[in-house]
């Protein structure tokens, strides 16, 4: 870190940043809406870390609220994602060299931060695709993989492009990394798109109700939760390595 302002670790969901927060000393909670962020110290070094809420609308609004409240050196955009390229396994990292969504290519990651994260992650630069809906089937993922047009590692999420566009607009450098929670050949245990609210967020109460109505979904949901925790631990390891 070179500036007087700390970096900010930005995720969509609390679960994605929980392992990082558990390793840190929390100094202060920032009262933001939407989202929830904290000033923390990790290994004695200052960071801001938290979540905006899932979906592109909450992602953009939450990041704007954060950047209106605090000055940061850079944004470390992190979270889980669905694998698009067939070689990616659960827990693998995709470091964004490019970020795409339905509007086209988003403002690119900062080259210096990209080089730094590639050096410590041991990964290769790839493509993150931010879709308007959760890709729940191999067929949806295959269509998105084809749209990438390049044989590089690629993963799909909902928020990275929205964050990148806010970062570009406000002139804040960023890096983006996603850990794969479900592979290109897998179907998610439930169609989470049916369980989203008007703001694009998956409603936890609807997930619980769906599980009560269809108990056969429970093992798959628990497995997805275990995968999410595994990915979040990997991302926390990476954040410590970048520091």
What is the fourth-level CATH superfamily? Nucleoside phosphorylase domain
Largest sheet: 5 strands, mixed, barrel
Shape: globular
CATH hierarchy class name: Alpha Beta
**What is Rg?**
17 Å
Oligomer: single chain
Percent range for helical residues? Answer: 25-40%
Beta-strand fraction estimate: 25-35%
CATH architecture: 3-Layer(aba) Sandwich
* Overall pLDDT metric: 95
Give the number of domains.
Answer: 1
**CATH fold descriptor:** Rossmann fold
Per DSSP E runs of 2 or more residues, the count of β-strands stands at 10
Q: Low-confidence stretches at least 5 residues in length (pLDDT < 50)?
A: none
Order of helices and strands: EHEEEHEEEHEHEHEHH
Kindly report the spatial arrangement of strands forming the biggest sheet: 5-9-8-6-10
**Distance separating the two termini:** 7 Å
| Helix-strand category | alpha/beta
Would you give an account of this structure?
This protein is of the alpha/beta class and 243 residues long. It has one domain: Nucleoside phosphorylase domain (Rossmann fold, 3-Layer(aba) Sandwich). 38% of the residues lie in helices and 26% in strands. The protein contains seven helices and ten strands. Strands 5-9-8-6-10 form a five-stranded mixed β-barrel, surrounded by four helices. The longest helix is centred in the C-terminal third of the chain and has 25 residues. It is globular, with a radius of gyration of 17 Å. The relative contact order is 0.20. The mean pLDDT is 95.
């Amino acid at each position: 870190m070179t500036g007087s302002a700390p970096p900010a670790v930005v995720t969509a969901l609390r679960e994605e940043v929980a392992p990082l927060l558990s390793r840190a000393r929390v100094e202060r909670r920032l009262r933001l809406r939407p989202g929830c962020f904290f000033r923390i110290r990790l290994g004695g070094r200052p960071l801001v870390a938290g979540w905006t809420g899932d979906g592109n609308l909450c992602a953009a609004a939450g990041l704007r609220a954060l950047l209106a409240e605090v000055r940061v050196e850079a944004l470390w955009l992190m979270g889980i994602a669905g694998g698009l390229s067939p070689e990616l396994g659960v827990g693998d990292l995709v470091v964004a060299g490019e970020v795409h969504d339905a509007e086209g290519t988003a403002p690119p990651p900062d080259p210096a931060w990209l080089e730094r994260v590639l050096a410590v992650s041991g990964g290769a630069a790839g493509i993150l695709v931010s879709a308007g809906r959760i890709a729940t089937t191999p067929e949806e993922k295959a269509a998105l993989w084809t749209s990438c047009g390049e044989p590089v590692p690629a993963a799909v999420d909902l928020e990275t492009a929205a964050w990148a566009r806010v970062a570009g607009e406000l002139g804040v450098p960023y890096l983006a990394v996603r850990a794969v929670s479900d592979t290109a050949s897998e179907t998610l245990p439930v169609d989470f798109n049916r369980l989203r609210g008007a703001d694009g967020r998956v409603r936890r109460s609807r997930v619980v109700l769906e599980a009560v109505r269809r108990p056969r979904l429970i093992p798959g949901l628990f497995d997805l939760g275990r995968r999410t925790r595994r990915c979040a631990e990997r991302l926390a390891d990476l954040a410590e390595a970048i520091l």
